[in-house]
Amino acid sequence: MTQTPTQTQTLSLELPGSLVLHVTQAQFESIAAANRDLRLERTAQGELIVNPPTGGESGKRNLSISTQLGNWFEAHEELGEAFDSSTGFKLPNGADRSPDASWVIRESWESLTPQQRKGFVPLCPDFVVELRSESDSLPKLQAKMREYMDNGARLGWLINPQKMQVEIYRPGQEVEVLENPKQLSGEDILPGFVLNLKRVWT
Known about the structure:
about 200 residues, alpha+beta, tt1808, chain A, 6-stranded mixed beta sheet, 6 helices, globular
């Protein structure tokens, strides 16, 4: 008698927003590997965060940011590596985060083994960008930016199109808030990088 292989049926599970799921690092990596189309994050306390797909406006804005960072990177490859929003980083405090755009200095990237570069990158980026979408909680994004700084980031931009405002984070300094800036400077962290915000505000 010929047996047919059993097929596994995939079901969707919707959870109420008030329910918090805690997962271990190993469990998180398994979930992320099985759901590569989702942007998943994990807090330092082990809480699983599922970020919904962005809408058209956020997608357009994020493309502009990533493209501009990518163009700068192509001309300055010797300085480091740039990453898009699908890249996960395993921060020193144990959290797994995926900034909307990020950059890692060359020395840090080269210190990683080939295996470490394939999975969630075990370090904090030197530069991070978070773009607030309509569904994002501003206090949560601000806490996320502080977390990046506490874990080794040297420059961070929280871009808030809803208020046409940018919060600039630097380690050991007060947050600088810019109202409707036309451009942002990568300072001495990303020398020569200037982000034009025209496509982000419109």
